[in-house]
Amino acid sequence: MQYVISPIVQACDAISGARPGARREIMQQYLQRIKDLENLATSYPGVEKAYAIQAGRELRVIVESDKVTDQDSDKLSFEIAQKIQTEMTFPGQIKVTVIREKER
To answer: How many domains are contained in the chain?
Structure first.
């Protein structure tokens, strides 16, 4: 080692790399979690499409405006969030956004 800071950097790297999943996450597991998240949302009636974005940190749910009212969309987002919390394992929080677009 040529520099005084080299052993410190090496120790920090070893500590950081010791965490599970710190170096890499198996791609298949990641893709499966994203698909499960989207499938969970689309299982509700009135949900047209669901997209997991920002590496699964946010779920955008598009509903059919003729089947889901504004009040129902509030309830739907809460129910989806509760189901994610009870049935799935995700690090951190997931933001659930329900989009209801009405044509004029």
So the answer is: 1
Tell me if the pTM is above 0.90. Answer: no
Q: Distance (Å, rounded) from C-alpha 37 to C-alpha 29?
A: 12
Domain span holding position 83: 25-100
Amino acid, single-letter form, for residue 80? I
Q: Looking at beta carbons, which pairs linking 69-73 to residues 24 or more positions away fall under 8 Å?
A: 70/100, 72/46, 73/98, 73/100
- 4 belongs to a structural domain: no
CATH number, residue 37: 3.30.300.20
Burial of 41 (0-12, 13-18, 19+ CB in 10 A): buried
Model pLDDT for residues 33-82, shown as the tens digit of each residue = 899 999 999 999 999 999 999 888 899 999 998 898 889 999 999 999 99
Question: Residue 5 above 70 pLDDT?
Answer: yes
Which contiguous run of DSSP H or E holds residue 31? helix 27-42
pLDDT at res. 70 = 87
